[in-house]
Amino acid sequence: MLLRFLGHKIRYSCLLNDLEQHSIVFEDEYVVETFLNSLPRQWSLISMVIRESKNFKTMSLQTLYGKLWSHEIRNEMTKLSVIQPCHGSECRKKQTENKVVVKDEGWARLSSTYL
Prior knowledge:
alpha+beta; four-stranded antiparallel β-sheet; 4 helices; 4 strands; 51% helix; globular
């Protein structure tokens, strides 16, 4: 999925660069909206969340890429069990399989400082 996102981003950026070479330039708001509309269906939830954010109207394409990239990295790490979803806002440390899982604000993160 990560490579699919990267490929989608590269194709879209190349298309925008080609249009810019022919003096066709769009406003950031239109470019961001169009990119979100072009994403596959499985991205609809994160796409909706981004559209509802306060700074959506002023968001640049690079900022959007960063948000989507970090979302995809988090998903990949969760699949690999590097980070695990947890519940509760208290910080708790739990020893599991020679790893320390730190629970904080809905996500547990592995940190090399705790090993």
